[in-house]
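Posting here for the record, re: zinc ion.
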Amino acid sequence: MQLERKQMLEVEGGTDTECLRILRHEAGHALDTAFRLHFKRPWREHFGSFAQRYPDFYKPKPKSRKFVLHLPAWYAQAHPAEDFAETFAVWLTPRSRWRRRYKGWPALQKLEYIDGLMNELAGAKPRNRTRTKVEPLSELRTTLRKHYRRKREKYNFDWPAVYDRDLLRIFSDDPRHSSKPSAASFLREVRREVRQIVAEGTGVHQYTIDHVLENMIDRCKDLKLRVATPAREARRRVMIVLTVQVMNVLHSGYHRVAL
Ligand SMILES: [Zn+2]
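Prediction output follows.
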């Protein structure tokens, strides 16, 4: 966890609650594989084709009620296999009150299907008896250095946005304010806090958001911007602008398919 935090700024599943979310999700994949559930016709009717190519990108629709909400970034929308795992995780969560929570949502039909299916399977032996090991440790040759280089590259993708106009709405380039604190040092001060809040609200990785903040800091330096409003107000505006930027990128296709 220390290494991950140092390299990537956040630890996925780093708290008990988050870790359980992931384990419930993975338990869904495990059952799906063990009982070959995705070959069943109703499975396909509810979730789509399991054989569908795994995307590098997915474009979530944050308001969709066809999918449950469990892991961040509307992950159920990434692929039918993830939709099943996410729906299963909601069903499995104790006291999740899914019937009430998803009342009136098309996603409820998927939950009801899983509820019935799990009752059917209770006590049955898994159909998949293969002993094949996937990527056994003894065959792994990737070093941590390589792993983190790849992971960081993946989350450091080119941000397609230009934010000069937004920055000028928050800060000022008016020479009258030249004695005020610089926007760049202000952003550096609030960087950590803003990064965490926006990551929580949007489900986008902190490392990606930090990368955007870094670009913003550089632009602030180039444009010689100063903080001309009270710090609280400037902080609030930074949060709004950053959230909007991140949401735009989500809509243009953001990938958070696990590495
Ligand atoms: Zn998954």
